[in-house]
Amino acid sequence: VRIESALRNAVERDEFVLYYQPQLDIKTGKIVGMEALIRWQHPELGTVPPGRFIGIAEETGMIVQIGAWVLRSACAQNKAWQDAGYGKLRVAVNLSARQFGAADLIENLASVLEDTGLEPEYLEIELTESLFMSDITPAVDLLHRMKALGVNLSIDDFGTGYSSLSYLSRFPIDVLKIDRSFVADITRDANDEAIVTSIIALAHNLKLAVIAEGVETSEQLDYLRRHGCDEMQGYYFSRPLPAREFEQLLIEGR
Ligand code: G
Ligand code: G
Ligand code: MN
Ligand code: NA
C-alpha cells in the first residue's frame, strides 16, 4: 500500500488517533497541559509514525484536512476532560506551515472553539520558526487574528530555526518551547547550558513563558528548575499516551 494513497482515506476511515503528552509546572510538579500528537493506525501498515507521513501530508496538502481533524479532536477531548472535573488544562496542537497558509484558518479555529465549547485560553497553537522566515507581513497579521480569538501561541523547537530573533518582539507570542536537542546535554555540555539559560532569560525578559522539551532525567529537571524554567515535557515524567491512559494520570493526580 502506498502511503500517499492510504493517507487520502485515513481521515474518513477514522484511522488517526491522538496521543497526549503531559506538560508540568516545574515548581509545583502539577500537570498544567498536554501536547496532542497524532498517530496513524493503518489496518495493513500498522502504526505509522508521524515522521513517515507528516512530510507527505504537507507536500500533498493533505495536512490541511488532517490538521483540522487534529484541532477539533484535541479541543473536544480537552473540553470533555474539563467537564469530567479533571481541572482546566491547556491543550497544545502543532500547526504546520501549510495550515498556516490556508485561507480558512481563522474561520476554522473560531468554529472549532465554538462547536466544542472550549474556552480559547485552554488552547495553544504550536508554530515553528520556519513560518517567520520568508515574507513576514502576512504572518504578523495572521498571528494577531489568531490572538484576537484568545488562544495562546507558542514557538516549537525554539533555537533550531534560522529566522531572525526580531520576530519575537513584533509577534504576539506567549510561549517558547526549548528544543530537546539543547536539553539533552544540559548537564554535560557547557555550550548547551549556555544556550538553555539564555533562552530562559530571553523568554522571561520578553514576558514569555518557557517550556523545556525532551526532559529525560532528574538531573535535567533539577537544572531547569534551578534556572527558572517554567514548564517541562518529556519521557522523564511520561511519554505521549493514548487518551485513556492520560486520563488515568489525571485521576491519580487529583
Ligand atoms: O510524536 P512524535 O515525536 O513521533 O512526532 C514526530 C513529529 O511529528 C514532531 O515533529 C511533531 O511535531 C509532529 N507531529 C505530531 N503530531 C502532529 C500534528 O498533529 N500536526 C503536525 N503538523 N505535526 C505533528
Ligand atoms: O516537534 P515536536 O516538538 O512537536 O515533537 C514532539 C516529539 O518529541 C514527539 O514525537 C514526542 O514523542 C517526542 N518526545 C517527547 N518527549 C521526548 C523525550 O523526552 N525524549 C525524546 N527523545 N523525544 C521526546
Ligand atoms: Mn510540538
Ligand atoms: Na519540539
UniProtKB/TrEMBL annotation:
Subcellular location as annotated: Membrane
Limits of the EAL domain: 1-254
This protein's name: EAL domain-containing protein
Phylogenetic placement of the source organism: Bacteria, Pseudomonadati, Pseudomonadota, Betaproteobacteria, Burkholderiales
Covered residues, full protein: 679 to 932 of 949
